[in-house]
From TrEMBL:
Keyword Ribosomal protein: no
Every Enolpyruvate transferase domain range: 33-452
Family indicated by similarity: Belongs to the EPSP synthase family.
Compartments it resides in: Cytoplasm
Reaction catalysed by this enzyme: 3-phosphoshikimate + phosphoenolpyruvate = 5-O-(1-carboxyvinyl)-3-phosphoshikimate + phosphate
Binding site for 3-phosphoshikimate: K46, S47, R51, S192, Q194, D345, K372
One GO BP: chorismate biosynthetic process
Quaternary assembly: Monomer.
Name listed for the protein in its UniProt record: 3-phosphoshikimate 1-carboxyvinyltransferase
Top-level taxonomic group: Bacteria
Length: 462
């Protein structure tokens, strides 16, 4: 283990970051390349990175985090935790340290918390803020300010939290924490790990027993990390087959060493890029294989992808492994709605794989895509249209008709959405004419170094 007493090379201070500047775009184009080859790692998992910082700030003692994703989204959560009084720093070897204050013991931030582009950061932290009897003000960039927050504000209101907003349950807004906060039983009305996590984090920081009923299983990183930090979390199935999570508030958490595995949602881009460009073979190391996150791999295998999982092992309570992927002739499939929660962030890049697959790929149960960093269904449809890929867009479904030559030549509007930017750059790697995205800077919210990494493997960007 590395020495935690080491002098920090950097300390995160409480502060306000300007919202993403949508007037200052950085376009990038991808053109047809002759295959991607090599071994690579992608940055740490975004969901786990946010949570490691949050749990570190709520635990007593010093949490160490190895492999934290140092993207704009996660750094905003680090700043927020510092604003609540935690000490957050990293050393010269990129190990992060969080000295926490204990559950229910955070201090009132003096400034506005800017979550930039991050729905996960904003919604999880709202749960914590709402359970503390002080005021916290949240802001974000143009994308985050247009996303619905009622899904987390409604359960918080039931707990006694007051919401001050001029913009109808959208950012910017101020939460006046409940005093005392009232634990509730809450049935999550949409498949959302963010809503589940917000209610669990609120429950953890207030006296009493909070219950969350989850009709559809979503990513379980909050549950895993609660237990990993020493909390007791009840979990059972009710008669309706729904998961019921029970948490007793104000349990003490103990600082941990966390190693963040590679993000499968980031690995998705080189995986699809390798599948669609002839002559490719990549090995992507140390990727999180938690089954609440592997829906894309399942779907690509059904499409005929040559993907193998190697070196499968356990790391810090999570299944991880290396993914070997080779160029493949893909065929269209129907992706059932029930699979959506385990691949919710991967539909844009799956649509790109589908464009190169023979026949129709039908994706169902996509209503949540409408409220991501952009309306992802509309953004994907517009990007396909701009590049000559036939498709049908419904309210909650998308059909991509693949197999033809991809003309390319289109300019794709990213709408401050990192996954739209990366997906269409991948589309361009096999298209006849270059595909341009209007802004590649937004990729830094989740995957810093994306373009350099892809170029080192053989991708051609200009
Ligand atoms: C996340 C949950 C998902 C996902 C997001 C990360 C999380 O959002 O899209 O990128 O870390 O909890 P929803 O909970 O809105 O589905």
């Amino acid at each position: 283990m590395r020495n935690s007493a080491k002098r920090p090379s950097m300390e995160i201070k409480q502060g306000v970051r300007m919202a993403h500047d949508s007037t200052n775009l950085s376009p990038l184009a991808a053109r047809k390349c002759s295959g991607l080859r090599g071994h690579l790692r992608v940055p740490g998992d975004k969901s786990i990175s946010h949570r490691a910082l949050i749990f570190g700030a709520l635990a007593r003692g010093e949490t160490q985090i190895h492999g934290l994703l140092e993207s704009e989204d996660v750094l905003n959560t680090a700043k927020a935790m510092a604003a609540f009084g935690a000490t957050v720093r990293k050393d010269d070897e990129d190990v992060w340290y969080v000295e926490g204050l204990g559950t229910g013991s955070l201090v009132e931030p003096t400034g506005v918390l800017d979550f930039g582009n991050s729905g996960t950061g904003a919604r999880l932290v709202m749960g914590i803020a709402g359970a503390h009897a002080f005021a916290t003000t949240f802001m974000g960039d143009a994308s985050l300010s247009s996303r619905p927050m009622g899904r987390v504000l409604n359960p918080l209101r039931e707990m006694g939290v007051e919401v001050l907003s001029r913009s109808g349950d959208r950012l910017p807004l101020t939460l006046k924490g409940a005093d005392p906060a009232q634990p509730i039983t809450y049935r999550v009305p949409m498949a959302s790990a963010q809503v589940k996590s917000c209610v669990l984090l609120a429950g953890l920081n207030m006296a009493g027993t909070t219950r969350v009923i989850e009709p559809v299983k979503t990513r379980d990183h909050t549950e895993k990390m609660l237990r990993g930090f020493g909390a007791t979390l009840g979990e059972e199935m009710n008669d309706a087959g729904e998961t019921v999570l029970t948490i007793e508030g104000l349990q003490e958490l103990t600082a941990q060493d966390v190693t963040v595995p590679g993000d499968p949602s980031s690995a998705a881009f080189p995986i699809v890029a390798a599948l669609i460009t002839p002559g490719s073979e990549l090995v992507i190391e140390d990727i999180l294989l938690n089954e609440t996150r592997t829906g894309l791999i399942t779907t690509l295998l059904e499409m005929g992808a040559d993907i193998t999982i190697e070196n499968e092992r356990n790391s810090g309570g999570e299944r991880i492994g290396d993914i070997r992927v080779r160029s493949s002739a893909l065929k269209g499939v129907t992706v059932p709605a029930a699979r959506a929660p385990s691949m919710i962030d991967e539909y844009p890049v799956l649509s790109v794989a589908a464009a190169y697959a023979e026949g129709e790929t039908r994706m169902e149960g996509l209503e949540e895509l409408r409220v991501k960093e952009s309306d992802r269904l509309a953004a994907v449809a517009a990007g396909l249209e701009a590049n000559g890929v036939p498709f049908e867009e419904g309210k909650d479904y998308l059909v991509v008709r693949g197999g033809g030559t991809i003309a390319g030549g289109g300019r794709v509007i990213t709408h401050l959405d990192h996954r739209i930017a990366m997906s269409f750059l991948v589309l361009g790697l096999g298209a006849e004419k270059p595909v341009t995205v209007d802004d590649a800077a937004i990729i830094n919210t989740s995957f810093p170094g994306f373009a350099d990494l892809m170029e080192a493997l053989g991708a051609e960007f200009e």
